[in-house]
Known about the structure:
By secondary structure, the chain is of the alpha/beta class. It has 46 helices and 14 strands. The strands form three sheets. It has an eight-stranded mixed β-sheet, sandwiched between helices.
Amino acid sequence: MRILRQLSLYVALFLSGGAALAYQTTWGRMLDRVFGVGDLAVATVLAAFFLGLGIGSATGGRIADRLRFPVWTYAGLEVAIGLWALLSLLLVPNVHALYTNVGAGAGFGVVTAIRFVLALAVLLPPTILMGATLPILVRVVARTGDAWSSQATWLYVVNTLGAATGAGVTGLYLLPTIGNRLTLISAAGASVAGGLLVLALYRARGQVAAEVEAANIPAGLPAQNDQDDQGPEHSIVALEGRPSQVALACTLAAMAGLSALSGEVLWTRVLRIVVHGTTPAFASMLVCYLVGIAGGSLIAERLGRTMNPGRLFGHLQAILAALTVGSMALAPHLPRFLGLVSGEADLDPYRTWTILATAAALLLPLSLALGTSIPLAWRLAGGGAESAAKHAGRILAWNTLGGLLGSVLAGFVFVPLVGIEGALMAVAALHITTAAVAYVGSVRRIVTRIAVVALALGGATAIFVTKPSINLPFLLHARNDATNAIIAGPAESTWESQIKFLEEGRNTTVTITDEDGLWRLYNDGRPESGFGGDAPGFGAELSMLGSLPTLFAKEHGRAMVIGLGAGHTAAVMLGGPWEALDVVELEGAVVTAARRLYEHENVPFPLDDERATLIVDDARARLVLSEPGVYDAIVSQPSHPWLAGSSALYTKEFFAEAARALTDDGVMCIWVNLFRTEIATLETVTATLRSVFPYGHAFVVEDSSFILIASRSPLPLDETVAERVRSPELRPYMNPQGLDHIVDLAAVRELDPTGFAAFGADAPLISDDRPLLEFTLAQTPSGVSVAYTDIDRAVLGTPWLSPEAFEELPAGRRDDILLARIREVENRADGLSRLSRSLPALDLTRSERELILGRIAEARGDARGALGHYDASEDPDAAEAADDLRYAERALYQLLAVAGDRVTPPDQARSYLSAAFAVGDDAQIDRALEVARIVDDPGDATLFEVLQAYRDDDCEGLLSTPALGAELRQDEYVAFEAERCAFLLGDDDSARHYAEERMRTRRALALEEGTAGREAETAGNPSAALRHFRRSIAANPAHGPSSAAVARILWDRGQTEEAAEILRRAADAAEGLPQSAAAIENAASSLGISLSIADGTVLDGD
């Protein structure tokens, strides 16, 4: 029974370690949502946590020897920790409210102080209790003599393994599956269970007293001779237990903690560049670190039995210095290692095991050596069982406080001053210094001490002279050329050549590269934005993000932009009528880089505008402290929402905080990536936004950006928006994107308010407790993306335009918007279906409706249906569309017959003119010329001149008109007639030239139609694709890819004979054209068609 009771202590301590890491993670996430994820805010929470652990270790060690029943005390501490964890679920929301009330309007220094005080109020009580648990257990299990350090080491190992388990289970399983709240409750349950287990097995006071007096190791754990290490060669008896050695042990523990946590912060930052800063990635790094520490502790326990602990401490610190330098040399090869482990030419990891393997390759050797520090310091302190708890607690306290100082110095001092490489070299030098202190404290001869100091100085100097490098430029940009990075590695000299700016900020490393004249801004190697090329120098997504709030907000008072990026969204908004703009950016180095971009382009930097205010802080923290109703618009554009921290800007609680800061009519505009995501994720984001802002629209631009604008009040896309989009302020940004007109803007709207309400109606919501977006995207491969067709299918049952949204549109532009939308979705079958479902409820004239139905039918590949609708309309656009369609289908006689009888002329007569010329009927030509005169469209001018010249002076007029050259490559019939005329006039050279032009025109047309066919096929519109491919073959019968595509489509429809005939005719036409012939042969082979080749041979398809 005694063994079972003692084993219960180890089980409880294992649970305690696991719970502690769960607490650290969950409390950190809860307080991040209050204070933000800025560097100072995170450091404040970390400082409070470490401070409590340090105080608890010192206090626990001090009081343990005075406790009559330490086992009961330990059990009570575990239960109390669990109860506090449950209480924190009620406490943190009140802290949030207190922080909001007290911090509003305060300066940065005061806000930081408030954060620290509140963090202490939440974290200090439980962390003090947590820090006291291990020293008190050391008191329970310590034996007489110096063997207590072995027992303490086993406790430490079990506790650390529990922590590693807790870190892994929390970050990789519990948070993604049950959320933060239930994870915290589970951890509390583990703490309480451990305490109750001990209490259950140590029920009677007599048992407790007896166990303390006769404490022993549980069965299965190694025993130790009390007289170990007493050989004269090590002078253990003479050295251990003396006050000077205890002081030395505490000093070494503090120095080891300083270097260990400094290194952990720095290596985590290096790994974050390689494996990304996701919660699973951080969990993986922590697991590797803690497992290594546990393993190192066992190594120290074994080696410490036969070696002087002080000297061994020095040896291992020297090894750590060498490992640090070696790891710096290894770091540039991590991208190659990641690529080889994953087996993919992609350096965006999403599988947990590949992240674990990469982290282990770097961290395990280091952490194994780091794990020896505490056990060796305990052994060095020595002493009897009566002082075991006191020494153990003091050493743990100094190690913890050293770690706290190291983590703060690394992030706030070392990196900003000397960069990651310089900071790592400083850590290596600190290991050497710690080794020197250990050696000097373990030897008595002055000469030896002087030699040790000299060697330490020499070693530290050698590190700074040799300047080991992690090749930061390569690490930052390897993912942009993954194949080359994996194959060639960092040896290539080109990685640094493109970098024009590099700054290591307190949160991330920011770079600017010159990529063929386009300067691009990267954050930890991930693309943020760029500047260059045609005006305005950036793409439609940023123009839209900056313009939509201006277009839809009822007032233009104060606005906020979350995330500066390159500054373009802020520039667009400041180009508008806004009176004030707050720009919140988490990383100061991004601001410096953005200014550099604008200086390079010689364009005024937006933050220099007197209306702009820069706030370097976390956006949520600023929103919490803002006055209610202070903003008319908030734009949130966090990049890479799968990263820990960024995902917090997509939760229901964040949107509620934004709503509180907005006026009742204020607008919320957010950017969502269409890359590395799935349609379900998009639905979840929309549903979450809609839960706070019920009215909204969604726009898709650049195939990569899903932009939502929403409000608590209706947002009509009306005449006001139409006027604003053409305003001089927005025109410079929207015109280059083709979005400076209400027709073009409305055409790229994917969801109107009705669609916004329907999209993701049953989707789960993202919350601070269940940050679904963060974990879902972290496990999504980079090649996965959402296409337009995915959105179409998701809202297929919802019309694209509701009657209410239709009525809000400017009256004179409603049919134009519908026609523009057809052009936008012409290759998207489901998109056309959504548009068709809209029409019955819309108030359209008969001619407008027939024109629109004709356009839809044509986009679907239904030429006959389209012509029926066009001919039933009296709209000039319908007449032009009918002519163009018949011309494209080469139904020239039908075109002339219909055109001759109709009353309404087309808007443009080009197809009519060309058809009349092709037929060669003088009466038809005269009629076409008369229509062209009536229409008077500039687009008809050159063809009109050609026909008029031909009609006036036959071939001589045709060949002599200056307009002929412009039409040769536009109209195959003009080229054909020119060829015929030149031949009749005896000009063979010109005839050959015109023949070449005709064939060139036909080949260009075949290529154009073939490209349109592939686009339609890719978008899921096979009927339209078939129509385009057939036109391609009609223009060039030898066009192999189009012939093959037609055959495949027909084969899939069961029209196998026609498919075979298409390929056979194409094979005859492609004689002597290897590429076309190969495409035809491959198609025949894949379909199993016997193909007769022009030379008489037969290819039997498999």
